[in-house]
Amino acid sequence: MSASLVQQVGVQEQLERAGFAPVAGVDEAGRGACAGPLVVAAVVLGQESDRSVMRDSKALSPKARERAFDHIMATAESVCVVAVQPAEIDRVGIQRRS
Predict the structure, then answer these.
(1) Contact of 50 with 71, CB cutoff 8 Å
(2) CB atoms closer than 10 angstroms to residue 38
(3) Surface-to-core class of residue 41, CB atoms within 10 Å of its CB (0-12 exposed, 13-18 middle, 19+ buried)
(4) Order of strands, edge to edge, in the sheet holding 25-29?
(5) 0.85 exceeded by the pTM?
(6) Which of 8, 33, 40, 89 has CA 20 to 30 A from 14's CA?
(7) Among candidates 16, 34, 32, 35, which has minimal Cα distance to 24?
(8) What is the CB neighbour count within 10 angstroms for residue 62?
(9) pLDDT in tens, 15-40
């Protein structure tokens, strides 16, 4: 598990102990309104989720990325994915969407 992920898991555990649960991990992907949609995902991992498979997806091979995706989808308590099209970003602005 990477040092960054260990730190994030530590923050999650602190939040859960303080009564803030469930905790969702959130990330975005996209190259901006000129290059396509902005896609944002939030995931609440289940207790049986193996956090050792969690890595920066850019650092994973395509096969490892697919295995991590399958594991997350099979063990997550909740998953939400939203795609915002460039026209909406142009109309509303990126700051109101982030």
Answers:
(1) yes
(2) 21
(3) middle
(4) 25-29, 38-45, 76-84
(5) no
(6) 40
(7) 16
(8) 8
(9) 888 988 888 888 888 766 567 788 89
